[in-house]
Specification:
The structure is a single chain. The protein is of the alpha+beta class and 191 residues long. It folds into two domains: 1-89, no CATH class; 96-189. The protein contains five helices and four strands, in the order ββαββαααα. The protein has helices spanning 17-26, 46-49, 96-110, 119-139, 145-189, and strands spanning 2-6, 12-16, 34-36, 44-45. Helix 3 runs antiparallel to helix 4 and helix 3 (96-110) packs parallel to helix 5 (145-189).
Length: 191
């Protein structure tokens, strides 16, 4: 049965099982090197597929090594016949506008106690969140939708808190001005 492994340049190298075992024993293939054959659904680390080949090997200290070809080896990279599945892809990048919305929303809440200094920051979070969500919906992309929504929520909470604070201040002023005018009217009546 033919096997494929991913070398350090992410090339798919075709070898027999005996050659693959020899590469594993000589250190040409590390435990974290991705390997595949036609009976497998996807690429997997060699230590998961053939753990017996790596029982005596200690930790190499490297993470996600793709493998290495041994010097002087007569193994030639070839295109696989059955087109094995592609190697695992990295996650999509985070959308900058969604990240800005989240950071502004959290920062706005933190600075809300500084006499409402967080208000413009919270408003920026709401604007960035709406713009980002509209663009993500238009493009059919949902990679950063949750982050944009979190920015929107924290932004709206910050705006809501400042609105409640302003209402509380207006009620406080109205109550004490009414109390002061009632006290002034009571003094005017007393001879």
């Amino acid at each position: 049965m033919d096997w494929y492994y991913a070398n350090e340049r992410d090339e798919q190298v075709q070898v027999s099982e005996d050659q693959l075992r020899q590469l594993a024993q000589s250190g040409g293939i590390q435990p974290d090197t991705f390997i595949w054959n036609e009976s497998m659904d996807d690429w997997k680390a060699a230590r998961l597929v053939k753990p017996e080949w790596f029982l005596g090997a200690g930790s190499t200290g490297t993470v996600a090594t793709r493998g290495a070809s041994t010097p002087g080896s007569d193994i030639i990279p070839t295109a696989p016949l059955g087109r094995p599945p592609s190697l695992p892809q990295p996650p999509p990048p985070t959308d900058g506008m969604a990240l800005a919305s989240l950071i502004c929303g959290i920062t706005g809440l933190v600075f809300m106690g500084c006499y409402g200094a967080g208000t413009p920051i919270s408003i920026a979070a709401v604007i960035c969140g709406h713009l980002c969500r509209q663009r993500l919906i238009r493009e059919g992309n949902s990679s950063s939708a949750a982050m944009a929504m979190a920015g929107l929520i924290t932004g709206y909470i910050g705006v809501g808190l400042i609105v409640l604070a302003l209402i509380g201040i207006l009620v406080f002023i109205a109550f004490f001005s009414a109390a002061a005018s009632a006290a002034g009217a009571a003094e005017a009546v007393v001879p």
